[in-house]
Amino acid sequence: MQEYIEQKFELGELEGLSRKQVEAHLGLYSGYVNNVNKLNASLEELSKDSEVNGYAISEVKRRFGFEFNGMRLHEYYFEQFENKIGVADPAFPLQQAIVKQWGSYEAWEAEFKTVGKMRGIGWALLLHDEKAGQLMNVWVSDHELGHLAGQKILLAMDIWEHAFMVDYLPSERGVYIDAFFKNLNWEVVETRF
Ligand SMILES: [Fe+2]
Asked: How far is the CA of 142 from the centre of ligand 1 (A)?
């Protein structure tokens, strides 16, 4: 069985997100990796007699999407803060695609932030529909509800309160979102496009 390995991220000092906040959040990420491995180990054991263990297997399968996406989305998230703050260079192909679709970078950012301010816990994602050549700002509840089939994740913003509750009040989500953008390395996002 393939074991998933916890990723390490090169994170310097972040603006508006304390070291304590980031460490606490990385600890939660670590928990998702552990749980994915535990669920896979359970599945391997239960699958030795899948007929008898049908009920237990279905519960593990149900849980799997939450833990796996929790792991993977946090990898997208923390990678975006790595190394340095990269400017959203208008010459980047993704920037050009954003401007083509929304009219301006600012119009796209305003819509993305609005998605991020929706009530509930989850993620705001910028997706690339490669089949149609379209970009989409999408809301995903929890980690796994609302993903669109076959879409490539370009940008992932964690909107769970655990992403900012060390530094901000729940009512200050907008301030957290501004901090998220200040630390974003657009060069990382661009490589996904
Ligand atoms: Fe998170």
From this structure: 10
